[in-house]
Design brief:
404 residues; alpha/beta; 12% strand; 41% helix; Nucleotidyltransferase, domain 5; 3 domains
Length: 404
């Protein structure tokens, strides 16, 4: 008895060592051989110490005595193994489609469809309809049906203007002509307002494991520190940028003063003989084409510099095509990712230290001026502006010339 008990222990040890390299067929063969070598009671003994069923061991015994009963290149005979759920329950695919379809989105003929229902919820509904299926099998079937869970993606730009592409072409042509003449072309816009304080900033930075930067659990603005408004000027031809970090409202006066500061601090040095300046801007915000104060302030700037200021606005809902968005603002966001903007000086330094592999350089200053909101420009003031409009979409394309 002692020797038989030792034999069972040896079989158990051998099985534990060999299990990682055994497949379905070799495991069955090995168990049958061990049972056969053990002798009387071998099937029960091997079953007990390995957990392999008696039926599997008996099947293996038949196969080792009849080697032609199974193709040596197959793990099981053709058609063997558990039947697929879709074969056992032929109507289950139609049932899954019926559950998913009410929440399907997109073109049904698209190569990729997706659903917002979880596989557990779908499984529960199927089981309520007398189907027998696990949530893992539901996930497998959905994958074969080319469904996947996906988040929202910002792609819709709103109703597209009929002359959208034509305006893009007009802007590109204008910029190209200015570059050929060696004249300055800039893209301008306001970056979103930022709360100042120890608030979470999106993105991740390397820190000691378990020692992340601790920030406030809420994002209510600090009345003492307030917010900042970065307004940027991007020199399209030179890949250089300027940002004025404002501490008051995002007004047209602030926007034009930023352009003015860029010109005297950077632009004039690069384009000393410039007689014209091209500005590309969004159609809304502080530099919108309907904002009278924007045009009035640009008139002042034109009078100061003696330059013609040509403005081209992007059509509605196309702000992402403005060069400053993806050539400058995106790099600023990357540079300060994961860093709390604890002070105004921090914002200025982070913006000013932004660089890119393509040579982008940015200078930044803190604009402490208090710009009033709600300033109105009367009809009389507006009609005194020296504005010359283009034939193509004059509301978007116009030139502000100095008043002589």
């Amino acid at each position: 008895m002692k020797n038989r008990a030792d034999a069972k222990t040896i079989i158990q040890l051998k099985y534990q060592k060999m299990l990682p390299i055994l497949n379905e067929k070799s495991r069955r063969y090995w168990a049958a051989i061990e049972a056969y070598a053990y002798g009387w009671g071998g099937v029960a003994g091997v079953c007990k110490v390995t957990g392999i069923s008696k039926a599997t061991i008996h099947k293996g015994l038949k196969e080792i005595h009849n080697k032609n009963s199974l193709d040596s290149n197959r793990l099981r005979k053709k058609g063997g193994g558990r039947k697929k759920i879709i074969n056992q329950q032929s109507s289950i695919i139609a049932a899954i489609e019926a559950i998913v379809d009410p929440t399907s989105r997109g073109d049904p003929e698209s190569p990729l469809r997706w659903t917002s229902k979880s596989v557990r919820k779908i499984c529960k509904q199927l089981n309520a309809q007398s189907f027998k299926i696990s949530f893992k099998s539901v996930a497998s079937i959905l994958k074969k049906l080319e469904y996947s869970l996906q988040g929202n993606k910002k792609t819709k730009e709103g109703k597209s203007h009929i002359d959208r592409d034509a305006q893009f072409h007009f802007i590109n042509q204008s910029v190209t002509e200015f570059h050929k003449k060696g004249l300055p072309t800039i893209s301008v816009d306001t970056k979103k307002k930022e709360n100042i304080g120890e608030y979470k900033n999106n993105g991740k930075e390397y820190c000691k494991q378990g020692e992340p930067i601790k920030v406030d659990s809420h994002d209510f603005p600090d009345k003492r520190l307030g917010k900042v408004v970065p307004y940027g000027v991007y020199d399209i031809g030179k890949n250089k940028g300027w940002v004025s970090v404002g501490i008051s409202g995002d007004t047209a006066e602030f926007a034009v003063n930023t352009i003015r500061t860029w010109w005297y601090k950077m632009g004039q040095q690069v384009y000393p003989n410039a007689t014209e300046l091209l500005i590309t801007a969004d159609c809304g915000g502080s530099n919108g084409y309907r904002v009278r104060l924007w045009k009035k302030e640009l008139q002042k700037f034109a009078n100061e510099t003696g330059m013609n200021i040509r403005i081209c606005h992007f059509p509605p809902a196309t702000s992402k095509w403005n060069k400053i968005e993806h050539r400058m603002f995106s790099y600023i966001s990357i540079n300060w990712r994961g860093k709390p903007l604890i002070s105004r000086e921090t914002v200025v330094k982070l913006i000013g230290s932004t660089r890119s592999e393509k040579g982008l350089e940015i200078r930044a200053v803190l604009d402490k001026n208090n710009y009033k909101t709600g300033i109105e420009v009367s009809d009389e003031e507006f009609f005194r502006l020296n504005i010359e409009v283009e034939a193509f979409h004059p509301e978007w394309n116009y030139i502000i010339k100095p008043n002589r």
